[in-house]
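Give me C-alpha cells for this 385-residue protein.
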Amino acid sequence: MFDVGAASVSFDQFHDDLAKHLGEVNPIKVAPRDASIAFELSDGRSFTYRQTSDGVVLESGSSADCVIVFDESTWQLFASQYLGIISLAMTERITFSIGGFAEFVAWDAGLKNLYFRHPIYTPPAEPFDPPRAFTLDDPSAENDVEMSEALATYGFVLIKGVFTPDEVATMRADVERAKAAATPSDGRSWWATLGSGDEVCCRVNYLSDQSTLIDSLTVDPRILRVGALPGNGLVCCDRHSDGHSVVIKYHDVAQGLADLPWHTDCGNGGHDLLCPGMNLGIQLDAATEETGQVHYLPGSTDTAVIGSRPKDDWQTFAIDTEPGDLTVHMGHTWHVAPPPTQPGPGRRAIYLSFHSEALNDRLGPYEAYNDVLFKEGSGRIRVDT
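Here you go.
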C-alpha cells in the first residue's frame, strides 16, 4: 500500500509559529462563534483553538467542545497536508475524547486557511455567465487559449463530440467486460450495496490493462491536447493514481462510496503532490439529473469551503453531456456526483488523471493516494459515508 510519507513538523514549534501568524492576521472568523477544538498528542501535549468575535485564539491545553487525540506521527501527516480530516477518520488514526467527527469537520475550511493559506471561497458579486461548450474541431491556437481561460475561470470545461460513436461503443463493451471480471478482493475495483442488498461494482481502475483502446488514450493526440490546457506540464497517469478508471452510477445505493459528496480530488490529503491536477471524463452515456451528472462550484479552484459544501443560494452548474463528450475539471475545483434520480442504469464515465512528475516519482506502479482509505482486499472504504 502507498506510504503517504513522513513529515518532520514539530507539534510545539508549529503552534508557536501559528500563534505569531494569528497575531498578524486576526480577526479571522473560520468557525461558529464560541466554537472550540483541541488537538492532543498521546503524551498529553495539547492546544485549543477558540473562535471569538476578535478572531481565532490559540491556547495551551485541551479545554474544548471537541478534543482529537493523535499520535505524533499522525499529527505530522495532518499538519503537512499528507492526510486530510476525512482520511484521518476513515482510517481510524485518531480518537475523540470529547465530541466527534461532525465538530472536527466543521473546522476543516478554517484549518486549511490557518495552516496552508487556502483562501475561503466567497461567491463573486456578479454571477458567472453560463459556461460555453467547446469542440476540438477548431485546431487554432485561439480556440485552445479560450478553453484554457475558461478552465482557469470556472475550474471546469465541457468539450463536445470528442469521441466517435464507434469509439464509445468499443469503450462501453470493454468497460462491461472489466466490470464482469471484477471482484471485491482484486484491489482494483470499488463496491457498493444497493437497497435491495445486491452487491455492485461501482468503479474499476487501471482499465489500460484490459482494453487496447483505453490504453491508447494515454498518447491520444486529443487527450494530450486537452491535457496541455493548464500550461503547467502535467502528464497523463495510466498505471498509478487509479490509472484510467470508470465510474458506474447506480440508483438506490445504501452503502459504499458510489455517490461522492461535495469534494475536491485532494480532499483525502496530499494537496502539495496532487495539485495542480486535472481530470478528464469521457462520457459513455448521457449525463443528466436522472443518470447522476456532475455539478461544479465555479471559481472554487484552490479554495476551502466552509461546511464542505456550497450554501443553497450559491451558484453551481450541473453539466449535461452526450456520449462521446469530454468533461474537464481541475482537481481542486469543488464538485459533486449525486445519485441518479430514476431507477435503472446510471451513467458511466472513464476518467483520466493528469498530475505532476513529482507525483509520478513518488508513486510506484498501481499505487494511488486513495489506497490508504481501503480495507485491503475488500473493495470498500473503511467507513461507509
